[in-house]
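Hypothesis: this fold can be encoded by more than one sequence.
Test: take the structure tokens below, design a sequence, compare later.
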């Protein structure tokens, strides 16, 4: 009698554990896609204005997908396959709005109409691999009509090399522009003041006479968030456990860094919006997808990747794991349209170049 009662008790405990696992898997399968939706909305609507979501913008988005295979296996193993639709929803949210996947749509090319090709490339001072040789090889591979380079390093070395291929080359600060077209004007904006302190605007304005007529170009490279983000990383695992990674000093450093980047994006975005001629904005924006700053100051411009690209379009970083962030962009106003867009494959820099073909809007 005692033995049978013990056996019944064991079966009851085993059944309770099984029920708990089944219930947990079912509840988690519903909570997970809701969490992804809420997380996506938080990144998009709050973004850099709260330092937690601001840092979240710059982490690999694939990390948000870690629960997905676990939940798929758990639902299948516990006989809850009918709830797999929740993970299909989660996969859609993860791939498209969160990670930025784009399905290529056909673009209409007007045969015989003038067009030009622009390449934008943060070349990391040309020192990552083989100085400037690999950079020049990537430029030659795409044969663009206009080349925008950021973080050039020594323009005294690079400019003469580009002049062998392009009739007009202009260098200023960290930027080099090489083009087959006439540079009508070029200018550096005034410093940006924040709390009474001047800061570099980190962009360049040019007007080029192209086959499409006069086009205004902005070569841009707002401040990188790297220094502020590294303060959290330097806290390490112990810093995360003790809370030292998430403290007021790190938050203040992030807000100061973000405020300057926002001011720089606002400066060139506002100037570009006032132009009456066709406009191209190209460069390393340091603004990932879902960035509030990107949406607030640059949403009035077309994104070449969204118009004519496909896949994820990631451009940074080019380490052994491959790029997992899209921050290098080519934008235009409505006077132009993108008929082709692609991302380079060279590891000559810690960024991939971006290339776009442009025609007049119909």
């Amino acid at each position: 009698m005692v033995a049978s009662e013990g056996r019944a008790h064991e079966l009851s405990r085993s059944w309770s554990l099984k029920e708990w696992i089944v219930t947990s898997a079912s509840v988690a399968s519903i909570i997970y896609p809701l969490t992804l939706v809420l997380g996506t909305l938080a990144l998009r609507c709050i973004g850099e204005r709260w330092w937690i979501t601001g840092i979240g913008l710059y982490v690999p988005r694939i990390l948000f997908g870690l629960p997905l295979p676990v939940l798929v296996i758990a639902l299948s193993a516990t006989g809850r396959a009918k709830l797999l639709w929740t993970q299909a929803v989660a996969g859609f949210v993860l791939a498209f709005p969160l990670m930025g996947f784009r399905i290529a749509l056909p673009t209409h090319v007007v045969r015989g109409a003038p067009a030009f090709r622009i390449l934008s490339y943060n070349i990391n001072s040309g020192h990552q691999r083989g100085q400037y040789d690999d950079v020049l090889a990537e430029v030659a591979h795409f044969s663009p009509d206009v080349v925008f380079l950021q973080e050039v390093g020594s323009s005294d070395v690079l400019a003469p090399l580009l002049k062998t291929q392009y009739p007009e080359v202009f260098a200023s600060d960290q930027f080099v522009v090489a083009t087959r077209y006439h540079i009508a004007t070029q200018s550096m904006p005034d410093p940006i003041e924040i709390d009474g302190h001047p800061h570099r605007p980190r962009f360049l304005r040019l007007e080029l006479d192209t086959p499409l007529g006069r086009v205004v170009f902005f070569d841009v490279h707002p401040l990188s968030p790297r220094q502020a983000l590294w303060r959290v990383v330097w806290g390490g695992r112990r810093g995360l456990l003790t809370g030292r990674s998430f403290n007021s000093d790190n938050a203040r450093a992030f807000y100061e860094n973000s405020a300057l980047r926002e001011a720089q994006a606002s400066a060139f975005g506002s100037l570009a919006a006032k132009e009456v001629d066709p406009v191209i904005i190209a460069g390393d924006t340091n603004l990932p997808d879902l960035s509030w700053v990107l949406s607030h100051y640059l949403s009035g411009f077309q994104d070449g990747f969204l118009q004519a690209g496909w896949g994820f379009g990631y451009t940074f970083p080019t380490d052994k794991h491959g790029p997992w962030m899209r921050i290098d962009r080519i934008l235009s106003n409505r006077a132009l349209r993108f008929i082709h867009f692609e991302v380079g494959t060279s590891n000559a820099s810690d960024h991939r170049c971006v290339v776009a073909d442009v025609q007049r809007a119909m």
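The chain has a mean pLDDT of 90. The chain has two domains: 2-98, 115-360.
Hypothesis status: open.
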